[in-house]
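name: query_chain
kind: protein
chains: 1
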Amino acid sequence: MSDAPLILTVKLDKDSQQYFDELREAHFPAERNYLAAHLTLFHHLPPNQLQLINDIESIVSRNQTLSLQVTEVKSIGNGVAFQIECPPLGQLHSYIQKLWFDWLTPQDRQRLWAHVTVQNKVAPEQARALKAQLNERFEPFTAKGIGLSLYEYKNGPWDFVRDFEFDTIKETKSSHK
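structure:
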């Protein structure tokens, strides 16, 4: 790894990742769309901390696939995101916050707002139009969080570091409308 800050996300199941990626590809400004769709847990973790890797490995070994309830389409001002509800994810985030508190930025010390952004950095009227369009056919659905993914932040683009898979004993089917 380099000296770049690290980002920790929830690894989504293949079907959910594809669904959100397709929306992001269709609606995110092309010149700014250099990331796959993602559900970020921590935005700025310190690089070169072996303890982070050890902690993540320990965490995923004690956790199972998360049932992520995609509950609504939300406006984020200049974009659109899907809100995610999952009490166990909130508990996991709180646990990690306590574990890494001294390493966290003010942003990462805040309560988790779990979401997947499919559009950002557009005019507010364009965002309102997409939100209305997505709401016309939106029905809540369940996605799966199958692990955690670690990336290096490269002043815009992210470089993949590693996936950490949860115990997959309890899985639920994902479906998209």
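note: The chain has one domain: 6-165.
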